[in-house]
Amino acid sequence: MQHNLGFCRSCWTMPGRFMFSLVILSLIFTPALILITQWPKAANWIHNIVLKKVQLYPQSAGYKTWIDSPVTTTRAYRLFNVTNYMTVMSSPNSPIEIQETDPFMYKLLIRKNDIEWFNDNTEVTYTVERFFERLGIFDKTLLEGEGAFVNIPRVLFRTRFDRKPDQNFFAGSGLNVFNYTHAVDLIEGFNSATFSLIRSNMMGPNTEKYGYIYRYNTSRGYNYTIRTGFNDSVDKGRMLDYKTEYNPTRLAAINVFQADFCRPVQLRYSQTIPMFGFDAVHEYVLRLVDYETCSHMNETCEESVYLDISKCFSDKDKHESTIYFEPITGTPIKAQLRIQLNTNTYIDRIKVDRYGNAKETDSRGVKRVIPMFWIDQTITLNKSTLRRLRVANRILRIGRRIYETIKVGHMIVAFLLCLAVIAFFEAMHYVRQHRSIAKLTTKSRNPETSGRRTSVSDNLLA
Predict the structure, then answer these.
(1) SS3 assignment, position 208
(2) Comparing C-alpha atoms, which of 359, 341, 363 is closest to residue 350?
(3) In terms of C-beta distances under 8 Å and separation of at least 24 residues, what long-range contacts does 411-420 make, across chains too?
(4) What is the membrane topology listed in the Swiss-Prot or TrEMBL record (predicted)?
(5) Beta partners for 181?
(6) What 3-state DSSP class applies to 441?
(7) DSSP 49-111
(8) CA gap 234, 54 in Å, rounded
(9) What are the CA-CA distances from residue 421 to residues 22, 433, 462 (Å)?
C-alpha cells in the first residue's frame, strides 16, 4: 500500500496539470487568434509572394516561365470536303454538301526571340517563332485521304477580277474553284499552277508552298510589344503593338491578338465558376472582332460574320471559345479556341459536255460562302504549375473561411469553456482521489481488518 501511495505522490499535482493544460490551449488558440485578427495582412502577404513568382522583369522567376511557358498547346484541323463540287460549279446556287475529315492533330511550340525591355521594364518587345509538329503518327487514312477542297490560291487570285472575269483569269487559274487533292497537303504545303501566279505577290514567311500551317511553321513574322505589369500585375500581358512585314498595325489595350487571322480576339467576361480544383475561376469568352468596322475595340463591337481571306478577316466561330483564369495571378488555366473559317468567293459557272469536258460560260459569278476548315486549339497549363496554384488557393480559401466564420469573441468564449471543462474534470478527479485516500485511511485504522490481513498473509507464507 505504501508503494501505491508513493506513486500518487509522484504524480503531477492538480495546479501543475492545470497549468500544463493552459499552456497546451494557449499553443492551440494563440495562432488561431492571430490568424483571425491579422488575416487581411496575412492574405496580402501570401498574395504578394505568389505574384512575385509571376512578375515579369529581366531574369525573374516570372521571366523564366514566360520564356518557357508551362503549357501544352495542341491544334486540330478538320477540312471540309465538298462532295458535290461538280454540281456546285455547274449550278452555283445549288446546296453545298460537305463532309468533314478526321482531325489532323498538331503540337504547337512557341519561342520568343529578340527580347528588348523599355520604360523601366514596364514594356517588352519580342518576336515569336512558331513550330508545328505532328501529334503522334498519322495513319494511312489521314495521309491518303482525298477530297475536293476550296482552292485558296485561286480564291486569292479571283479577288483581282470583277464579277465577270475576262479570259486571262481562266487561262491562268483554270475553271475549278475546288482542288481535288490530299487533305494533308493543304495543311502542310503544296504547289499548283495557280499558286505560281500569286506567289510573287504574297507577303509574309514561307512562300515556297501554300499550306494552312506551312506558311507559319518556323517563321518569325510576328513582333509584339506588351506591358509587363511590373508596377501593376493587372496590366501584365496587355498588348500595345503588333507588327509584321506585311500587316503593320498599332492597337492599344488589346488582350489577345490572333496572328493566324490577322485580327484581335477580344476577351469578354462570362462568369465565375468552380473548376479545375479551384473554388472560383474566371471564364472569359473569345470574340473575333472586325477592327476595320469597330476601331475603338470595346465590348460593344460586333463579331465578324465572314472571312474575307483577301483581307485576312476571321469568320464567326461555330462553337464557344473560352479561357479560364486562375483568380490570384490571372494565369490562364485552360483555353479552348474553336473557329470555323469560310471564304466568301465567286463561283464561276461552267458547262460540262457529254464527254466530261468543262468550259466557261458568259454567266456572272455567284458569290457563295464556302466552308474551308475548322480549328480546335487547346492550351492547357501543366500539372506541376497547376498544383502549386491550387495549394496557394487552398491556403487562402481556408484562411478566409476561418476569418469569416470565427470571430474574436467566439475564440475567447471557446478558450474559457475549455478552461472550465478542464477545471471541472480536475475538480472531479480531486474529489474522487480524496475519497479514495479517506477510505484507505479508515481501513488501515480498523484493527479487525488489519488482523484479518495479517492472518491471510501468514497462511500464504505457511
Answers:
(1) coil
(2) 359
(3) 411/29, 411/32, 411/33, 411/36, 414/29, 415/25, 415/29, 418/25, 419/21, 419/22, 419/25
(4) Multi-pass membrane protein
(5) 147
(6) helix
(7) HHHHHH--STT-HHHHHHHT-SEEEEEEEEEEEETTHHHHHHSTTSPPPEEEPPPEEEEEEEE
(8) 12
(9) 12, 18, 52
Q: Report the distance separating Cα 238 and Cα 227, nearest Å.
A: 5
Whole-Å CA distances, 293 to 238, 252, 314, 318: 22, 16, 13, 21
Integer Cα distance of 271 and 284 in angstroms: 7
- pTM: predicted TM-score of the whole model, two decimal places: 0.66
End-to-end CA distance of the chain: 22
Separation CA 326–CA 349 (nearest Å): 53
CB atoms within 10 A of CB 275: 13
Residue count of the chain, please give it: 462
Give the model confidence (pLDDT) of 20-71 as tens digits. Answer: 777 777 777 777 677 677 778 888 888 888 878 888 889 888 888 888 888 9
> Parallel, antiparallel, or unpaired: how do β-strands 278-288 and 178-182 relate?
unpaired
DSSP 8-class letter at 103 = P
Please state, in angstroms and rounded to a whole number, the distance separating the CA atoms of residues 336 and 288.
14
Q: How far apart are CA 287 and CA 317, in angstroms?
A: 8
Which parts of the chain sit beneath pLDDT 50? Answer: 1-10, 245-255, 257, 259, 261-262, 306-318, 450-462
Environment class of residue 89 by beta-carbon count within 10 Å: exposed (0-12), middle (13-18) or buried (19+)?
Answer: buried
Per residue in 362-418, pLDDT (tens digit) is: 888 888 888 888 899 999 998 888 888 888 888 888 878 777 777 666 667 676 777
How far apart (Å, rounded) are the C-alpha atoms in residues 151 and 190? 11
Cα separation, 376 vs 105, whole angstroms: 9
Those residues with Cβ within 8 angstroms of residue 184's Cβ, 6 or more apart along the chain or in another chain: 104, 138, 142, 143, 145
Our measurement of the distance from residue 451's CA atom to the centroid of its chain's CA atoms, rounded to an integer in Å, reads: 89
Torsion of Cα atoms, 182 then 188 then 189 then 190, to 10°: -10
- The pLDDT value recorded for residue 143 is 93
Cell of 288: 473575333
What letter represents residue 38's amino acid?
A: Q
Q: How far apart are CA 55 and CA 457, in angstroms?
A: 85
Measured distance CA(138)–CA(76) in Å, rounded: 13
CB-CB contact of 167 with 253 (8 Å): no
The answer to whether 381 and 71 have CB atoms below 8 angstroms apart is yes
**301 is written with which cell numbers?**
463591337
- Answer yes or no: are the C-beta atoms of 135 and 116 closer than 8 Å: no
